[in-house]
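Long-time lurker, first post. I've been practising inverse folding by hand and with some scripts of my own, and I keep getting stuck on stretches where the structure tokens seem ambiguous. Below is the full token string for one chain I'm working on. Before anyone asks, I'm not after the true native sequence, just a reasonable design that respects the backbone. If someone could post their per-position residues I'd love to compare against what I wrote down in my notebook.
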């Protein structure tokens, strides 16, 4: 699977194209509701157009906000996809300057302003995480906790004590789950019970 990225923080870029002003605002968003909230907050009612797009995995939406169909929202989405971004929303606001840009000009203006904004933004790789529960006897608990804490990307989320030991709920990058399972099995000589959550 190809690497996907998201933004570290919100970003902005501005361009003036044939007297029309374009401002792109992009941000990382957690879900569709957050994307809608961001779009509503960034849209300027005084502007001629507030066009936008967002993507979360296989889900995406875009809107031309009165521009000719396919000339604004779709190019913004193409800018998001062109940089392998996910969990991102982008709004490009236009103040009309009196000169018509034509379909090709609009596609370049909206897509280009969005791409400029996203290129300059800080990015971080999205890592797909998995969770697992480890039932570990007291005799192995300290050693297991120490080794898990030393692994990059692995976190102990919860710890619940039982009569014989503890149940640790951990999160780890999906690609590391098999290695973590082998490590815990080897450390405890198979005494720990590991259950992977769906």
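-- Answer (accepted) --
I ran through it position by position. Result:
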């Amino acid at each position: 699977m190809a690497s996907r990225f998201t933004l570290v923080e919100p970003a902005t870029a501005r361009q003036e194209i044939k007297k029309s002003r374009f401002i792109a605002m992009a941000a990382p968003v957690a879900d569709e509701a957050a994307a809608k909230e961001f779009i509503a907050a960034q849209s300027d009612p005084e502007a001629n157009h507030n066009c936008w797009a967002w993507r979360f995995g296989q889900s995406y939406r875009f809107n031309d906000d009165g521009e000719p169909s396919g000339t604004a929202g779709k190019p913004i989405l193409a800018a998001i996809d062109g940089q392998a971004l996910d969990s991102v929303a982008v709004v490009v606001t236009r103040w009309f300057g009196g000169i018509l840009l034509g379909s090709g000009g609009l596609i370049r203006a909206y897509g280009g302003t969005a791409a400029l904004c996203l290129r300059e933004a800080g990015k971080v790789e999205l890592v797909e995480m998995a969770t697992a529960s480890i039932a570990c006897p007291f005799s192995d608990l300290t050693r297991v906790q120490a080794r898990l804490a030393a692994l990059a990307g692995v976190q102990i989320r919860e710890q619940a004590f039982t009569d014989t030991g503890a149940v640790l709920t951990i999160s780890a990058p999906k690609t590391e789950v098999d290695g973590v399972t082998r490590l815990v099995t080897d450390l405890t000589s198979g005494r720990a019970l590991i259950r992977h959550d769906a």
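A couple of notes from the structure itself: The helical segments are 32-42, 73-82, 102-120, 138-150, 177-187. The first strand starts at residue 5 and ends at 7. Happy to go over any region you disagree with.
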